[in-house]
Design goal:
There is one protein chain. By secondary structure, this protein is an alpha/beta fold. It contains 14 helices and 37 strands. The strands form 5 sheets. The chain has a 20-stranded parallel β-sheet that branches. Strands 4-7-9-11-14-17-20-24-28-31-34 form an 11-stranded parallel β-sheet. It has a two-stranded parallel sheet with strand order 21-25. Strand 35 and strand 36 form a beta hairpin. Helix 10 runs antiparallel to helix 11 and helix 12 packs antiparallel against helix 13. The radius of gyration is 33 Å and the shape is elongated.
Length: 728
């Protein structure tokens, strides 16, 4: 049983103190990538809809027959003849706009066929007028109104090019040879190209939706949906967004050119909350899809109970991401995603440059999305395979993860106050029981070497997390290992907070805003390199302080001690290695632990050298040395289990006290010892020499005692002794 369960009061007290400490120097910005009206998760009584292959009930086509015939000219003969026959029907009693056909649906289970063409839905494009132009509703942080369902029904085209509201079992299918033969284009004039709201059993197949100010295909509050062979592209936020839904299936889809993610199953039905790894079913399945050239290929705030398998996520800034970082999403914290047999590679594209140069400040139609511009909507580390920012009970098994400049896997915790929950017991409720096992890291499917910058980046928080053996570079350098059975962990930990420097980095990097063109200085996610990086700046600042204090202490107290001099030189090497180990190229190697080893030996050595003259400072110095050596062991050999905080936290606090004490001790009058301690424990040079001569006579105040007693001290003798007593 972990210490957090044995001693809940201690856990709460430590967590409260830690959060209070953090609040002194950071106010983490609250943001939301997706804001929607309050919505309840489905009751789970639905099912995944089945494709219906019969003839359509309703048909949509454009009126320009010559243009239509040119579009189908290269189709296989059978498909061409079918489209010609459907066009004959459409000319007689069909519709020219998809919205008109949706409005004509009067019963469950209707099939709508869309014939090849470009559908701009001209009647839906104008801006709202009358009452719809003056709706009272809260505004999201991204500028759009958060409308109720009733407002969506009354003013369906305020935000949506095509609105599917309250329809059951509706199937919409393009009849082209490929998904690009039918294109639904919002021309950056609507928030959503297609919105299906409270429409259980909806089935989308074989078309393209594009160019919105939010997302192309949006499914909200549906118990049962399928997205089959659909392409979405060139949107400010998402390609596919499904939210608060159950019994969903994405298959054979594609998405690119999106400012957030291509595929986003946000707040999937939280059906497995409270379970372990063994679950009865998943709420959403995603398979056979490719998501590329987005900010991130896949993402899911509260992406709960999602099974993601046999997909490809590549050429994005990040391959896949799930999180608990944004408020207002049902089902937080995120839990129970399962990733297997996915190809996740080469996600290194840096799109933040378009924010820096002002491209993303232009109107969407002028940004150049069609030419490859992407405007990242949130903060994330480019060059990463799978990111988990505050998730639990996730499985990552049998995936190919390679070719990432930063890391293959990235795991960090998210305190509950970030998502708007202030209850103390919830603050450390994320980043537990995530299993990374049997993945192929640093090699492609052919077996060719395609290494990641490092295989694992972990902030250190959480319990029950484990990784497969033998990662090629990780930070920390040693990781809890997964057993063959799910739930079996060797060398686990249960920590309330991550490493302090990593926490500082995450807090700095999170302060990003695409709207304000705010790219945090000091964060390498946005291009900071070398001395610009906050981790290197922290290492340099610490090295400068310790070099100054350690040098002063050596000069005033230890320069005549061989042990003190040797230890100080070792400390100098440790400080240099600590700065070097903070750089991106060395952070996942042995250098950070070697730096701690040298620093620990430095403090141990000078602690021993200080014992005769400054016993209490020596004890504190030895404690600091022991903590530093323990920190090196924790990072390079074995993560110490059952402790609430990393040794780095305690070491940092003790180092602050030691620095102040060492400055005071070095500044007090007194010389450096000339040699090791002599009889009586006093080193030579710690007292002013007494001139040779006859022993002074006993004074009346000396008191009785055998033999001659010491006489009164001279003024020069008394001062060093007084100073020494003060320093002790």
């Amino acid at each position: 049983m972990s210490w957090t369960r044995r001693f809940p009061a201690v856990s709460s007290a430590l967590l409260a103190a830690l959060l209070a400490l953090l609040s002194l120097f950071v106010a983490a910005p609250l943001a939301s990538a997706h804001e929607e009206r309050p919505v309840e998760l489905p009751d789970g009584t639905g099912s995944v809809p089945q494709y219906r292959a019969g003839e359509p009930d309703l048909i949509v086509c454009k009126a320009d027959r010559p243009a239509f015939e040119r579009r189908i000219a290269a189709f296989p003969d059978a498909l061409k003849q079918r489209n010609l026959a459907l066009y004959e029907r459409c000319e007689k009693n069909g519709f020219r706009h998809l919205q008109e056909a949706v409005d004509a649906v009067d019963r469950p289970g209707v099939n709508i066929a869309i014939l090849p063409g470009l559908y701009e839905e001209e009647p839906s494009l104008p801006k709202p007028v009358g009452e719809c132009a003056a709706l009272t509703a809260p505004n999201s942080s991204l500028g759009y109104q958060i409308l109720t369902y009733e407002q969506q029904v009354a003013c369906r085209h305020n935000q949506n090019l095509v609105a599917i509201l309250g329809k059951t079992g509706l199937q919409i299918e393009g009849t082209g040879a490929s998904r690009q033969d039918v294109v639904i284009d919002a021309k950056y004039q609507k928030l959503n190209a297609i919105r299906a709201d409270k429409s259980d059993g909806v089935y989308f197949r074989n078309f393209t939706a594009q160019r919105t100010t939010f997302n192309s295909l949006y499914v909200l509050a549906a118990d049962g949906f399928v997205i089959d062979d659909v392409l979405t592209r060139w949107n400010d936020e998402y390609g596919f967004l499904t939210f608060a839904s159950d019994h969903g299936l994405y298959k054979n889809c594609e998405s690119y050119g999106n400012g957030d993610s291509g595929v986003y199953p946000g707040s999937a039905s939280n059906i497995n909350d409270g379970r372990g790894y063994d679950v009865p079913r998943y709420s959403i399945e995603i398979t056979g899809c490719r998501s590329h050239h987005n900010m991130v290929g896949y993402s899911g705030t509260a992406g709960d109970s999602v099974w993601v398998h046999d997909n490809e996520f590549d050429q994005n800034m990040g391959g896949a991401s799930m999180d608990s970082a944004f408020p207002g999403h049902p089902g937080l914290p995120q839990n129970h995603a399962r990733f297997e047999r996915n190809l996740i590679h080469d996600n290194n594209t840096d799109y933040y440059r378009y924010v820096a140069d002002g491209t993303c400040a232009k109107p969407p139609a002028e940004r150049g999305y069609e030419q490859g511009v992407v405007c990242p909507q949130i903060s994330m580390p480019p060059g990463t395979g799978i990111i988990t920012a505050g998730g639990n009970w996730n499985l990552y098994e049998n995936n190919w993860v390679y070719g990432h400049q930063r890391a293959g896997f990235f795991l960090s915790a998210v305190p509950a106050f970030i998502r708007g929950e202030e209850k103390l017991s919830k603050q450390a409720d994320t980043s537990h029981h995530n299993r990374y096992a049997a993945n192929i890291l640093g090699k492609d499917k052919s077996g060719a070497s395609r290494p990641n910058g490092m295989d694992v980046w972990w902030d250190g928080q959480g319990r029950g997390n484990c990784w497969q053996s033998g990662p090629d570079g990780s930070t920390p350098g040693t990781l809890p290992q997964c057993g063959e059975r799910r739930g079996a962990v060797s060398g686990g930990s249960a920590r309330l907070a991550g490493e302090p420097v990593k926490l500082a980095q995450l807090l700095v990097c999170a302060d990003y805003s695409v709207q304000a063109r705010k790219l945090p200085a000091g964060c390498d996610w946005y291009g900071a390199r070398g001395l610009q990086r906050v981790e290197t700046q922290i290492a340099l600042a610490v090295a400068a302080v310790l070099l100054l204090v350690g040098g002063l202490l050596w000069w005033r107290r230890l320069r005549a001690s061989r042990l003190g001099t040797a230890a100080t030189l070792l400390g100098l090497a440790g400080l240099a290695l600590d700065v070097a180990g903070s750089t991106m190229g060395l952070v996942a190697g042995f250098v950070p632990a070697l730096a701690l080893l040298c620093l620990g030996l430095w403090w141990t050595g000078i602690g021993v050298a200080l014992r005769p003259a400054r016993p209490w400072l020596a004890r504190l110095t030895l404690l600091l040395g022991a903590l530093t050596l323990l920190d090196a062991f924790d990072k390079a050999v074995l993560m110490i289990p059952w402790i609430p905080l990393s040794p780095a936290w305690i070491r940092a606090l003790v180092a602050v006290v030691w620095t102040l004490w060492a400055v005071i001790a070095a500044a007090r009058p007194g010389g450096a010892p000339a040699a090791p301690a002599g009889p009586g424990g006093d080193p030579d040079g710690d007292r002013v020499p007494v001139p040779a001569g006859p022993a002074p006579a006993l004074s009346a105040e000396a008191g009785p005692g055998p033999g001659p007693g010491p006489g009164p001290e001279t003024e020069t003798e008394a001062e060093p002794r007084a100073a020494e007593g003060d320093a002790r």
